[in-house]
Amino acid sequence: MNGMNIDKALASFEELWSPRILATVNDYDVRVAKVKGEHVWHAHADTDEFFLVLAGELDIALRDRTVHLGKGDTFVVPKDVEHKPSSAEGAHILVIEPSGTVSVGDRHEEVPDHVDVTTGHALTTP
């Protein structure tokens, strides 16, 4: 049961759209990621997805609108709602979702090479 510093966790990797598991709470992963550019349109059929912007700005496009988030802002995408995160200048984000949830959801558009399809990577810090 060790604590983890978010800044140190984020400094331990460079990959974009490749979340790292910061902690697990009950059956939920707390993940951090560095993002820039666009993710993919996707939806999670059985779970909501919580976003917290730690640094920078994040847009979450929904089919009927775009939600703009700045540092300290949160947003929950309800289950089965299609969404597409993006960040023009780059951002650091924290995401909470059930352990084992795939980063591109249950249904998605074609996944480009810059988006990591993962359930979250183990965090390795010195």
From TrEMBL:
Superkingdom of this protein's organism: Bacteria
Region forming the signal peptide: none
Location of the Cyclic nucleotide-binding domain: 12-75
Protein name, entry field: Cupin domain-containing protein
Species name: Saccharothrix mutabilis subsp. mutabilis
